[in-house]
Amino acid sequence: MNQEPNPHSQPAAASHETAPEATPLSPRKAMAGVAVVLLILVVLAAVGILRRIHAGDVLAARTNSMAAPTVSVATAKAGAPVETLILPGNVTAFTDSPIYARTDGYLDHWYFDIGARVKKGALLAVISTPELDRQVSQAESDLATAEATANNARIQAERYSGLVKSNAVSQQDTDTFVNQAAATAAAVKSAQANLQRLREMQSFEKVYAPFDGVVTAREVDTGQLISSGSGQGAGTELFHMQALQTLRVYTNVPQLFSQTMKRGMKVGLTFPEYPGKTFEGTLVRTADAIDPVSRTLLVEVDVDNRSGTLMPGSLAQVHFKTPSAGPAYIVPASALIFRREGIQLSIVTSSGAGTVAHLIPVTIGEDDGATVQIVSGLTPNDKVIQDPPDSLIDNEKVTVESSQSSAFGAGGL
Predict the structure, then answer these.
(1) Listed residue (217, 149, 144, 142) closest to 183, CA to CA
(2) Is the distance from CB of 366 to CB of 373 less than 8 angstroms?
(3) For residue 270, what is the enclosing H or E element?
(4) Contact yes or no for 258/118 (Cβ under 8 A)
(5) pLDDT of residue 364
(6) What does pTM read for this prediction?
(7) How far apart are CA 278 and CA 270, in angstroms?
(8) Is 369 left (phi over 0), alpha (psi -120 to 50) or beta?
(9) What is the rounded CA–CA span in Å between residue 215 and residue 97?
(10) What tens digit of pLDDT does each residue of 201-230 get?
(11) Which CATH class name applies to 243-323?
(12) Distances in whole angstroms, Cα of residue 390 to Cα of each of 333, 339, 346
C-alpha cells in the first residue's frame, strides 16, 4: 500500500549540515592590494625606461665615436735655409716683329721662306706698283712746271725791281711780281716734297729685313694684292721675323720673394725637351711693381741662344736660388685644403674634450707637385693631418691613428 510523502518532513542530510557564509573583504586590504599591483607596474615601467635610456646613451656614444673621422697626422719637416724657387716661364724672342707693306700693289717676288736665317738689310720681297710709278712720273712733270713758272716769276720780279728805281714802272706792279716770284718758289718746294714722298713710297717696293733673325712666317705669295698699313684689316702682313740670338724668359715671382730678385743673378732654366740639362740665364730686369691682380712681380731672364738650341714660344722651368724669407715647412700636397676662404691646413690638438681638428690659413712657397713649402701659418710643433676628408670642419672631433709617423717623409723640395 502506497504512502504519500509528508510535506513537512526534511531530508536527513539537510537536517544535520548547512552552507558556509563568505567573510566580507575589508577596504584597507583592498587598497593595499591595488597599491602593491601599481607599485609592481611602476617598477617594471621604470626598469624598461632606464634600459631604453641606457641603450640610447650607449648607441649615441657609439655613433659619436663612429662619426669622428680617423686621420693620420705628422709633424711638418723644416725646409732648407736656401730655397730653390721653381716657376713656369714663357720663352720669347729678343725681337719679334711682323713686317707689313708700306705701299699698295702686287707681290712680284719673294726670296725667303719660313726657317730662313737672314741678315739685316737682306731683300725679302719685291712689290710691283704700276699706279705709284705713274704718280711719280706725274709728280716729276708737276715739279718741272712749277720750276719753270717760278723761274719766269723770278725774272719778272728782278726786272721790275731794277726798273722801279728809275720810276719806269710803278711800285705796285713791282710788288705784284715779287710776290708772284715768292709764291711760285713755294710751289716748287711743295712739288719737290710731293715728289720726294712718292719716291719714298716707291722705295718701299722692296722689302728688307729690319734685323738679323729668322723668318718664322710668310703670309703672302706671288701675285697677291698687297695693301699698305698694319693691324687687323688695315694691311697685309708679309713676313714675321724673330731675333733668336738671345731669348727672353718672362716669369711671375710671388710677392713674398720679390725682394730677393736682384739684377745680374744667375738663373737655371730647364726644358722638357732637354731632360737632365740646365741652361744658364741672367736676370736682367724686373717690372719694379707688383701686379695688383696676381700679386706677383714680372721678371725677365735672358739666355744666350747663338747655338739655336732653344725656340721661342716654348715653356721653361725657371729655377731661382733664393734665401729663405723665414721658417718654412714641407708638407705633402695632399694635406692642402682648398676652399673659398683660401688655402688651409688641418692640425689636431688634444684637450679634456678629446682630439679636435683646427683649420688654419697658410701661405705656400715652392710647389713641386708632390710636396709644397709652407712659408707662413705653421709652427714647429703643429701636427698636420695628412689626407683630410673633404667634409672636415673646424673644431670637429677626430680619431688619430695609433700608428702614425713622427714627421713627413724626406725628399720633396
Answers:
(1) 149
(2) yes
(3) strand 266-270
(4) no
(5) 80
(6) 0.56
(7) 5
(8) left
(9) 10
(10) 888 999 999 999 999 999 999 999 988 876
(11) mainly beta
(12) 14, 10, 11
Domain 130-204, CATH: 1.10.287.470
> What residues contact residue 281 under an 8 Å CB cut-off, 6+ apart?
249, 266, 267, 268, 269, 301, 302, 303, 318
Q: Which fold has domain 70-80+327-400?
A: 2.40.420
Residue 309: all three cell numbers together: 738650341
Tens-digit pLDDT profile for residues 92-115: 999 999 999 888 899 999 999 999
What distances in angstroms separate CA 37 from CA 33, 34, 43, 316, one per listed residue?
6, 5, 10, 92
Comparing CA positions, the residue from 308, 310, 409, 392 lying closest to residue 348 is 392
Cβ neighbours of 239 (radius 10 Å): 24
Report the distance separating Cα 370 and Cα 368, nearest Å. 6
One-letter amino acid for residue 178 of the chain? V
Grid coordinates representing 9? 518532513
Would you call 208 helix, strand, or coil by DSSP?
strand
Q: What does the pLDDT look like over 342-388, one tens digit per residue?
A: 889 888 888 776 788 888 898 887 677 788 878 788 888 888 888 88
b/e burial code for range 149-174 (CB count within 10 A of at least 16 → b):
bbeebbebbeebeeebeeeebeeeeb
Cα end-to-end span (Å), the chain: 142
Identify the burial level of 8 via C-beta atoms within 10 angstroms of its C-beta, where 0-12 means exposed, 13-18 middle and 19 or more buried: exposed
Q: What does 282-309 look like in DSSP terms, one character per residue?
A: EEEEEEEEE-TTT-EEEEEEEEE-TT--
The percent of residues above 70 in pLDDT, for the chain, comes to 85
The Cα 70–Cα 72 span in angstroms is: 7
Any idea what DSSP says for residue 166? G
Give kind and range of the element (H or E) at residue 182: helix 171-203
- Rounded to the nearest 10 degrees, what angle do helices 130-163 and 171-203 cross at? 160
* Structural contact between residues 371 and 333, judged by C-beta atoms closer than 8 angstroms: yes
Fold match flag (70-80+327-400 vs 130-204): no
Angstrom distance (rounded) from CA 290 to CA 376 = 20
Cell numbers 728782278 correspond to what residue?
Answer: 158
pLDDT at 410 > cutoff 70: no
The residue extents of the domains of the chain are: 70-80+327-400, 130-204, 243-323
The C-alpha cell that represents 195 in the structure block = 715728289
The one-letter code for the residue type at 111 is Y
Grid cell 683630410 in the structure block, residue: 388
Tell the residue number behind the cell numbers 723665414, with chain if given: 326
Mean pLDDT of 286-309: 94
